[in-house]
Amino acid sequence: MIDRLSVMRQKQESRDSLHYIYEQYRDSLLVLAIALSHDVNIAEDAVHDVFVAFAQNLENFKLTGSLKAYLSKCVANRVRDLMRKKQGRVNATSLQQNCSMTLDLRDPGQLIVCNEELQLLSSALAKLPYEQREVIVLHIHGQMRFKIIAKSLGISVNTLKGRYRYGIRKLRSILDSEV
Amino acid sequence: MSSAEKIRKLFAKSDVTVNSKVDDRIISNALTALEKSEKTKSVSSEPNIWRMIMRSRITKVAAAAVIIIALLIGLNYFVGSLDIAGVAWGEVARKVEEIQMFSYRIKLRISGTPKEKIELEIVMYNSLEHGMRGDSYVNGKIISTSYMPLTGNGIISVFPHEKEYMRTLWSEEQIKRYMESNNPRKVVKKFLEFKYKEIGRDQINGIDVEGIEVNDPKFEPGVYESLVACLWVDVETRLPVRIKLDGVASGGAMQVQTVVDEFQWDIELDAHDFEPNIPRDYTQVAEIEETLDNKDEEIAIQGLRMFAEAADGKYPSSLAFMTVTYEYSKAMRKVLDRRISAIKERIREDQGKQSNLEEQKEIEKIKNEMKKNAKMQLLSVLQSSCMFYGELVKEDKDPAYYGDTVTAEDANAVLIRWKISDDEYRVIFGDLTAEKVTAESLAELEKVQLE
């Protein structure tokens, strides 16, 4: 009986934990996904997929560092996959179209609406190569160290830092010209 | 301020407004994923081959089930043993007590079934000396005759259209007990043992009648979720003229109306009328071991397991038999559709490689396997689960059933519980294991469950 009760309690605790984690990190992860994809639909799907996968493995999950960094990395990976898929579909119809240029982030009809700063940032980031965008977003917004990002991407830290520097310079220039 | 710092500030000010639909979708799917990961796979989600019933077989099973239900409902009208409360109604009870042979008609109308409305008429013949017999009609055509001879070993149902018959085996003891309780005086006694209200006078087919009404699902324990039963008797002869039952099941989706009327009292019936008449060219389609008497925990578990196997791990939303029948037939229909789709798909894929004849042979093989294994035992077992719960309700054992929220995957959740002593309960859990628990532990378990 005690076992059954503890299992039931554990289940309830797992549900509560999941709710808590979602509420805690939802906005941050969505901002990260939008900044990477410039597409609220991809962002929503990425956060959705990451949370579903996270819930599936919650029982065996062992946290070794920051949960936010872990989830940010997962969302970034998922965004990359989803963008590839979407890009593949777009390429099949028109090579000129770019998936990251198609959505209006100010549309109040969207289920996720971005504030002005995010619209500005996301539009500017969309003009960078994805590799540069990724390192900037993960490092600045995801608060991930270069070493960790480099490891997860399978590249050297120097290469990564190079991408970051070029990216920041270009981003600054884009933002200045827009302002 | 460096470029990176400015961008960092821009990130810090970035924000989103999220519609609750997004939260609902993500949280709901994540919780489902969490539950799936926690599941104890106690029930197979893939149905076995014996569960694949071909369409014609389902129709037959459903028809047979309805006949059995009607027969049993008919029988149940005459079960009961408490003392009579009212003087005038007591007189009615005494009057019918003397009658040895009689017949009546049962009209059963079930609406809200997955496929269509079911309307069935059964003419019942009762003899306290020889037994019972029921002739069932749909649209005026006879579809079956069920015999329950006093000297036989159960019910034999004959289907003339299909040239088939089935046996429902009862022990001699079961038959004897049923026949002993099958006395017309009990129908009035049964009404009187419940809290009833007098509904005044009326006229039925030119006969002046007076009625009483009982509003209590315990009148037919384990059959309906709610029930209103009315009895009208002839003001002059003091004999029953009509009994009407309006039952609701499946949360209101299913309505069952049973009207018992056209009583004929003291008619001439002989032993020959109750002897099963099975022509030589008829084949036996099924043999069922009746489990109606078996209202224990084990049979309840067996029935729930059968249901869950057919319904992908779900349990009936309530244990009213009509609800179970409704939901079980829906589940079986799904299984059947899946099976037919799979066969059709394969036919399409194999076109040119495999002949339709071979596919037909395969379908025939499934049908035969079904015929061999199904035996309709599941119907009586499912019914017994309902009767088991119905008894708990009737005996006020503080029962509760959570099949509307608990599935086979919720191994540790309370599925059924009932009181066995002042501070102890018996609990059947989602994984269909049973345990004795203290009232205190149960309260805690249910609290966690409801949260």
**How many helical stretches of chain B?**
11
H/E element string of chain A?
HHHEHHHH
**Average pLDDT reading of chain B:** 74
Which percent bin holds the helix content of chain A?
Answer: over 70%
Oligomer: heterodimer
* Largest sheet entry of chain B: 12 strands, mixed
Measure the end-to-end span of chain B.
51 Å
Low-confidence stretches of chain A: 91-102
Number of helices of chain A: 7
Write the layout of secondary structure elements.
The complex is a heterodimer of chains A (179) and B (451).
Chain A: H1 2-37, H2 40-56, H3 67-93, E1 112-114, H4 116-125, H5 130-141, H6 146-153, H7 157-178
Helix pairs in contact in A: 1-2, 1-3, 1-4, 1-5, 2-3, 5-7, 6-7
Chain B: H1 3-13, E1 16-18, H2 20-38, H3 55-76, H4 87-97, E2 101-111, E3 118-127, E4 131-138, E5 141-149, E6 154-159, E7 164-169, H5 172-181, H6 185-192, E8 196-204, E9 207-215, E10 226-234, E11 240-249, E12 254-265, E13 283-289, H7 297-310, H8 321-349, H9 356-373, H10 377-394, E14 400-401, E15 414-421, E16 424-429, E17 434-438, H11 439-450
Parallel strand pairs in B: 7-13
Antiparallel strand pairs in B: 2-3, 2-12, 3-4, 4-5, 5-6, 6-7, 8-9, 9-10, 10-11, 11-12, 14-15, 15-16, 16-17
Helix pairs in contact in B: 4-6, 7-10
Structure, described:
The complex is a heterodimer of chains A (179) and B (451). By secondary structure, chain A is mostly helical. Chain A starts with a helix and ends with a helix. Chain A is 74% helix and 2% strand. The relative contact order of chain A is 0.12. Chain A contains seven helices and one strand, in the order αααβαααα. About 7% of the residues of chain A have low confidence. The longest helix of chain A is centred in the first third of the chain and has 36 residues. Chain B is of the alpha+beta class. In chain B, α4 runs antiparallel to α6. The chains are: A mainly alpha (179), B alpha+beta (451).
